[in-house]
Amino acid sequence: MRTLITGGAGFIGSHLAASLLDAGHDVFVLDNLSTGSIDNIEPLKPHARFDYAIDTITNEPVLAEHVDRCDVVFHLAAAVGVQLIVEAPVHTIETNVTGTEVVLKHAAKKRKLVVVASTSEVYGKSTALPFHEDADLMLGSTHQHRWAYACSKAIDEFLALAYWKERKLPVIVLRLFNTVGPRQTGRYGMVVPNFVRQALAGDAITVFGTGTQSRSFGYVGDVVRGMMALVAEPRAIGEVFNLGNNHEITIRGLAELVKTMTASNSEIVTVPYEEAYESGFEDMPRRVPDLTKAQKLVGYEPRVQLPETLAMIIDHHRALGKQDA
Ligand code: UDP
Structurally, how many domains does the chain consist of? Predict the structure, then answer.
């Protein structure tokens, strides 16, 4: 396959690029480096089947040219990270909605398969656990900027499924659940790289809220394997899939695990949500994927559990020398 990865210099995109190259595919990365980093694709540059351009997906002539040249588009370019979303809601909404609109429009001209990366955030405050793809979504007030992210991604999903229904554009929507692994940066607020950096630096480990809220962290390698399996399965077209790991851990539990695994002397402190984000901030108490759909269709099973993933992340941060990842 000739593949185009929008957002391919990001954390997940760069892992996907490496795996696609390993599997013998051609990879072209289009990334504006807004949250991605050239360092992520540096090791891929010498590869004969790899190429990239630093540009935005809303540069339509450039995007159109690269869509024409590929067989499959992995559309990962998006505004990510709760911190970034709360701080820059206009940017989030515009990037996520306009970007996906443009990608789908150009892919539709030549009927190129588009994989749209969505997020578990779309389930919002739902308490119908584990989250199944057909379940109702439950978002909060439009005054709370966090929900703009879920809403913008839900619009991306609607749009992708509408292109499939109305224009027969083959699409696959993937809801990724808290993907983690080496190279993820804590700069946009993601909890795992933040805790690892804090623990290694001996700084306080900052648990937001009570720490009783839970998440299920998926290893990036498992998620990428799931993406590649679904792309190769014609029955995945026009469908939505959860991808991640269904093992749940509280954020306090995560802080303790990171502290133990790094043998850190850091203190674990709690920070109220309104201090960490904004006043009235709403978190989701639990988030667990139902993975049955991907499991039944392509045999998707997460293979790497959180302690093993954390060990890789800790090694990665140590190898950076300075903990500024
Ligand atoms: N969190 C935390 N400390 C941090 C960063 C995040 O306690 O330094 C919490 C955050 O409030 C949420 C969970 O960790 O309850 C996961 O946050 P993240 O931003 O990684 O992903 P989310 O699941 O919120 O999209």
Answer: 1
Residue list, ligand 1 pocket, CB within 6 Å: 82, 121, 178, 189-191, 194, 206-209, 213, 215, 251, 283
218-277 residue pLDDT tens? 999 999 999 999 999 999 999 999 999 999 999 999 999 999 999 999 999 999 999 999
In terms of C-beta density within 10 A (0-12 exposed, 13-18 middle, 19 or more buried), how is residue 249 classed? Answer: middle
Q: Is there a domain that residue 32 lies in?
A: yes
The pLDDT tens digits of the residues spanning 148-187 come to: 999 999 999 999 999 999 999 999 999 999 999 999 998 8
Instruction: Using the atom order of ligand 1, give the atom closest to the CA of residue 213.
Output: 15
- The enclosing domain of 9 has a CATH number of 3.40.50.720
Q: From atom 19 of ligand 1, which residue's Cα is the shortest distance away? A: 190
Does residue 91 fall inside a structural domain? yes
Tell me which residue has its CA closest to atom 24 in ligand 1: 82
Tell me, yes or no, whether 258 lies in a domain. no
Distance separating alpha carbons of residues 172 and 215, to the nearest angstrom: 24
Give percent of the chain above pLDDT 90: 91
Point out the catalytic residue in the list 52, 149, 163, 188. 149
The span from the CA of 266 to the CA of 93, in Å, is 37
For the record, the structure tokens of 106 come out as 């150009």
Which domain range does residue 14 map to?
Answer: 2-182+217-246+286-304
